[in-house]
Amino acid sequence: MLEIAGVSKRFGTLEVLRDVSLSVRSGEVVVVIGPSGSGKTTLLRCINMLEDYEQGTVVVDGEPVGYRFESTTGRRQRMSERDIAASREKIGIVFQSYNLFPHMTALQNIVAAPVRVRGIPRARAEARARELLAMVGLSDKASEYPVRLSGGQQQRVAIARALAMDPKIMLFDEVTSALDPELVGEVLAAIQQLARDGMTMIVVTHEMSFARDVADRIVFMDGGAIAEQGEPDQVFFAPRSERVRLFLKRYNDRYRI
Amino acid sequence: MKEFAPLLHGYWYLLRGAGMTVLMAGVAVLPATLCGIVIALAQVFGNRFARGAVVAYLFVIRGIPLLVLLTFVYYLLPLTGIDLPPFWGVVLVLAFYYAAFMSEVFRAGILSLPRAQWDAARSLGMTRQLMMRIVIFPQALRLAAPPFVSLCVSLVKATSLVSIVGLWELTMASREIVERTLAPFQIFIGAACVYFCICYTLALYGKYLERRALVGH
Fold first, then answer.
1. Which of A83, A124, A205, A221 could staple A38 via S-S, CB 3.0–4.6 A?
2. Does residue B122 sit at the A interface (CB-CB below 8 Å)?
3. Which of B121, B128, B139 sits opposite A81 (nearest CB)?
4. Could you tell me what percentage of chain B is helix, strand and coil, using 3-state DSSP and rounding each to the nearest 5?
5. Which residues in chain B are closer than 8 Å to A174, comparing Cβ atoms?
6. What does the pLDDT read at residue A255?
7. pLDDT value at B7 more than 80
8. Interchain proximity B139–A161, CB inside 8 Å
9. How many helices (H) and strands (E) does chain B have?
10. Which pLDDT band holds residue B103 (cuts at 50, 70, 90)?
11. Is residue B31's pLDDT more than 60?
């Protein structure tokens, strides 16, 4: 479903991503963990071309996103803004800071893209939006503005908004890191439901027990590269690399997986 | 109270002058706002040349007093062969002058939106035009509305300067009555009150917009 091949990116002299390659199967849930600054967020942002990157390609569902290889020259070429915008429709992303549009109600937030980008008739888009709101448990909040919603509720609306475009893959960038602890559970539950329904997902998180519950595969990133990946039980309890061991030990000292 | 007789006799003339003031300001505000938006967009999205032209224009406007600009255009423009009725001449200068400040206000509104809003809109597959129309502009304009109204108030007061080049509006009307009645104190108190009423009404509207701007924040 998703093929990341040799992605490298630098900010000035700092190499944030070093030749990162990752394959994600359809329906698979990949959880990315790692220390701050390891490039996890940058990787997600590169996948849907919120950031340019110097090398590598990203292919989603057989179609390139952002850069494609020119068949004539064999060189990588940046797609047009129009094409990039179109290819972003297949990728849904939920951010740490929710990023809802504050001047629209929850329902309007969800239908804005389907109606304006896809041209779906408003009535049909609103019906689907209400389905999605019901799925995340917020049917009664359709006419509320984001300012009236709690962080957890806003995040769930953000998830519904991303799902409204029927993406092939969902990206979650530390979506619970900005939430009060008691609101984290409702968001994780929504993500877990999505996983059970078979959505392909990449989840960046610090919630280790959640990672263990929901992941089909754990990817550990450090210093811009993938240091280790494997089944959750293997990575958490029998890591092969020393860096992972150190990271988990520090984590285990404070919490418990 | 009999000292105020000149004002009581002349107030209707003053109000007619006020009508002209409001007309002048009202006609100047529209092109000023539209140009302000275009200039702001040119600065945010334009290429090097567009941005360079805009910066030069802003430097000039901020460096020259409006009165000097008005006098300059009023006396020098006819020499270039352009035959413009005085009313439209001053309205254009006012619009040209205030567009600069309005563009800065709109630019600040656009740039003060968090990057996250752009990210979210782009991630949903929106093109730049769509994103500007339904996400950025509505929010930027709401943010820019209060300082924008302040600029409109300033524009209303700036119309008093056109009296120096001989155009007729509230200040000119006041001066005419003072010349006849030699009662500057009473007349100008009257003029000040009229200006105050116009500007205060605008300012109240600005306060209302400010409250509305906070919807959703």
1. A221
2. yes
3. B128
4. 90, 0, 10
5. none
6. 60
7. no
8. no
9. 9, 0
10. very high
11. yes
Q: Which DSSP helix (H) or strand (E) runs through A91? A: strand A91-94
- Distance between CA atoms of B211 and B139, rounded to whole angstroms? 14
Q: What is the mean pLDDT of residues A62-74?
A: 80
In the chain, the amino acid numbered B130 is L
Q: Chain A: residue nearest B213 by CA?
A: A103
Query: Within 10 Å of residue B201's Cβ, how many Cβ atoms?
Result: 12
Interval B166-193: pLDDT, tens? 888 888 888 888 888 888 888 888 889 9
The 10s digit of each residue's pLDDT in A150-197 is 988 999 999 999 999 999 999 999 988 888 888 888 888 888 899 999
Interface mutation vs chain A, best among B113, B117, B124, B212, most A CBs within 10 Å: B124
Q: What is the predicted pLDDT for the residue at A169?
A: 93
Per-residue DSSP letters for A221-237? EETTEEEEEE-HHHHHH
Token look-up 């006098």 returns: B71
pLDDT at B164: 87
For A142, phi and psi rounded to 5 degrees?
-60, -35
Ramachandran assignment for B96, one of left (phi > 0), alpha (psi -120 to 50 degrees), beta (any other): alpha
Other beta carbons less than 10 A from residue A92's beta carbon: 27
Q: Measure the CA–CA gap between A105 and A102, rounded to whole angstroms.
A: 8
Reported ipTM exceeds the 0.85 cut: yes
Asked if residue B146 lies in contact with residue B206, where contact means CB atoms within 8 angstroms, the answer is yes
pLDDT, position B217: 54
Pairwise CB contact (< 8 Å): B117 & A145:
no
Interface of A with B in 90-149 (CB under 8 A): 91-93, 95, 97, 99-104, 112-113, 116-118, 145-147
- Is A118's pLDDT higher than 60? yes
Contact A28, A40 (CB under 8 A): no
Nearest CA in chain B to A163: B124
Contact status of A60 with chain B (Cβ, < 8 Å): no
How far is A120 from chain B, CA to nearest CA, in Å? 14
Q: Which residues from A are below 8 Å from B216, CB to CB?
A: 102-104, 145-147
Nearest residue on chain B to A149, judged by CA atoms?
A: B216
CB contact under 8 A, A88 and B123: yes
Domains of chain B from N-terminus onward: 2-215 (1.10.3720.10)
Please say whether the beta carbons of A137 and A122 come within 8 A.
no
The whole-chain average pLDDT of chain B stands at 88
* Contact state of A103 with B124 under an 8 Å Cβ cutoff: no
